[in-house]
Amino acid sequence: MKPQEYRLIDGGIGLAISKTGDLATNTYGVLMSHSWCGEKKWEAKQTKSPALAGHEIPYSDTIYHHDITYHEGRFYTFYGQEIVSVDENTGEIIERIHILELIRSARDQNLALFDPRFRDVVLFYDVHRMNKSNWHKIVVPDPFHPNKIDVLSRDLADSFDDFEAGDLLISLRNLNLVFVFRPKTSKILWYRYGLTSYQHDPTFQRGYIAVFDNNPLANSGPSSRIVTLGVRDHTRSTLFDLRIWGISMRIHGNFEFDDDSNLLVVSDDNNGRAVVGYLSGKPIFIFENRVESGKNLRLKNITRVSPHQVEEWSARCN
Known about the structure:
Elements: E1 15-17, E2 23-25, E3 32-34, E4 40-43, E5 64-71, E6 74-79, E7 82-87, E8 93-98, H1 99-108, H2 121-125, H3 135-138, E9 146-151, H4 154-157, E10 168-172, E11 177-182, E12 187-193, E13 200-204, E14 209-213, E15 225-229, E16 236-241, E17 254-258, E18 263-268, E19 273-278, E20 283-288, E21 290-292, E22 295-296, H5 307-314
Antiparallel strand pairs: 1-2, 2-3, 3-4, 5-6, 6-7, 7-8, 9-10, 10-11, 11-12, 13-14, 14-15, 15-16, 17-18, 18-19, 19-20, 21-22
């Protein structure tokens, strides 16, 4: 699955599968889609805003990166400092939300969520003077490190009183911040600041939010765990202590949890493993991405596909 242009050799860790079995990845910082049978369908355009013409910007702002989410015909991921959704069939960008919109939304709601990452405090006070051309003069390097967008599905929306289908759950790793944003009103609906540390992969579950909490600076040492966050209060509880499975990652993390079966699927990047098991702690399946005895390749992202789906999609291949 090689792109036409290698934007960043170690860039991108995203993986998502559509309802029809199309696979989207952003390896090398290039967003691509392949059919289940391995045929390349599209490669998303690498674009620069006209506002950035003639300005020196970080290379990370010209790549697709981090997790990819599939929702109702679109793939959601990050392009630099923008949230983008692209058409599953064509790769055309349907919607863009720049981090500046989130900052303005917070300030308009009197929420001081993003303030610590600005070095030009005078300009930051006048938030509406900020734009894409002066953005990089104001912020510290890698100010927020966005790493996940989850989209609230119609199936789960009924389990939340204050959220609705289409709301976005966003993780900013460098702020230890997860929050819910409603694009159609540009409002931040909910946030939790400091209940997780260097977190990854927040997801809407049935009536609560689950997060891969890397927790690298715990007093007892790095303590990766899956935590649940209450929506109506500031409670946090540990759903599963990942150290039970020998997983302790400071800056990566990916999981899926099924509320009905209590089945937990976790990628273990440091050890090149995927671990599947129940909350009782006993793993039922471990995949090792091994190339030779004692040596595994990194495994940054996983997803679970049912045997029925594999059979259905594979039947279309020659």
